[in-house]
Amino acid sequence: MSEYVFLYRGGEAGRSPERIQQSMQKWMAWFKELSQNGHVKDQGQPLERTGKVVKGSQKTVTDGPFAEAKDIVGGYTLIEARDLEQAVELSKGCPILEVEGGVEVRPVMKLSM
Amino acid sequence: MTETSEHLFRRESGRMIAVLTRIFGVSNLELAEDVVQDAFCRALEVWKFRGMPENPSAWLMATARNRALDVLRRERTARTFAPELGRFIESEWTLAPTVAELFAAHTIEDDLLRMMFSCCHPRLPGEAQVALVLHILCGFSVDEVANAFVSTHAATEKRISRAKKGLADSKRLFDIAAPAEVLRRLPSVQSALYLLFNEGYHGASPETAVRLELCQEAMRLTSILLKHPLGGTPSTHALAALMCLDAARLPARVDSSGNLSSLFDQDRSRWDQELVAEGLRLLGLSATGSELTEYHLEAGIASIHARALTVEDTDWKSIVSLYDALIALRPSPVVALNRAIAIGECAGAQRGLEAIRAIPNPERLARYPFYFAALGKFELQAREYENARKHFLAALALARNPMERYFLEQRLVTCNSASAQQAL
Hints:
Largest sheet of chain A: 4 strands, antiparallel
Largest sheet of chain B: none
Strand content of chain A: 35-45%
Strand content of chain B: under 5%
Number of domains of chain B: 4
Order of helices and strands of chain B: HHHHHHHHHHHHHHHHHHHHH
Strand order of the largest sheet of chain A: 2-5-1-6
Structural class of chain B: mainly alpha
Oligomer: heterodimer
Mean pLDDT of chain A: 90
Structural class of chain A: alpha+beta
Mean pLDDT of chain B: 90
């Protein structure tokens, strides 16, 4: 088994209470299925959409990130899968895909071969 | 999520907007809506990772309260919030306790009621009032309201935004502690709730689920009105009774294959006896005082149906006299049609046909499929198969959804086979 990080980008915003509730129910069902199948190493955390960005040797601090809404990371999960192909397959069930969001699947670098 | 929290977000949306509008003032309705949207987005983000909190409603309210405090602190110099709270909001000493008090659970029902009365401003047309109630108090999006009324997004959006602007311009929320004002506006509120219920019960929306939701929302809001010392008049009891007695029949309106079933064909064992009992109890409570409203009469009619074990058992004579009183009180072509149907049940198909033909200005029923369906039914009973067929075809052409269409097609099949039987 290898570890992968799912980064959730974009999605949601400006939807009716009923749709938001339905969306949440789908997320919960999806996480439940993933963990029942032993794929969830750490369910992860939601992230605020704003914060600070610190850059360069001057340690310049700015408000940010000023990415477009669709590119902002809203949370992450640590997943266990056989290989990248399986991890990608698992990500396809993510409800964020139904609301114009995306999942970035990134293998965690292995320490030793 | 459990069964009980179905539509939780919709309900909480109405509660949060009602409280926030009281704090921000009705002129900042849009700001209140933004705060609610924000609370839902946070709930979605946090709950999907950490699971539902033990008390989701309290979590949402606390989130909205904190956001409200942020907004008040940030904008209190730039904006005018609720005028009656002015100085409490201005001082940091009183701000947090004032907001906490307004978010206290025991005041929320009053806020809902205040908003309900504010939405039912007599200057707004009835449909606009109902759309506003659905949108603000029941948390329906513009699309969901459009869907419920079988209207377009554009038309509904226009109606809602115009009504919202009117509400925001009214400067102050309705004062539900002023007895004379409450009694003056009560008929508007009752009529909006009645319209909402009827849209669910008889409306043209093809989706059964939507219709059921509209009835449930109307009943929920009516029960809030009923609990208020000034709102719980005999006429409100009659309205609530009517809703219970009609809603009791809902489980039987659609048969096991998902088809529309008329009062005459329904499996009466599927009527909800708990709702029947509640309806009869409320009807009893409505019979105090001297006021006799259309809700009393309609609830009376519904109670006669509810008590009849079979169609043949029905006391049609009493129903006809209740319809007579209803027509005197509130003449309407649909009421006249229902009265004619009751006469037909009571005195035979010929008398029914005569009563239908005697309805003044029948052109007002020209787009109503059940006008032709009723004509067809009595012609069928009178063995005038060719006439019956013509009427059922006319009804079919006006059917508003697949369920109605199927229902009328079945009538046509019955008619054709009866006519074939006779030819043999």
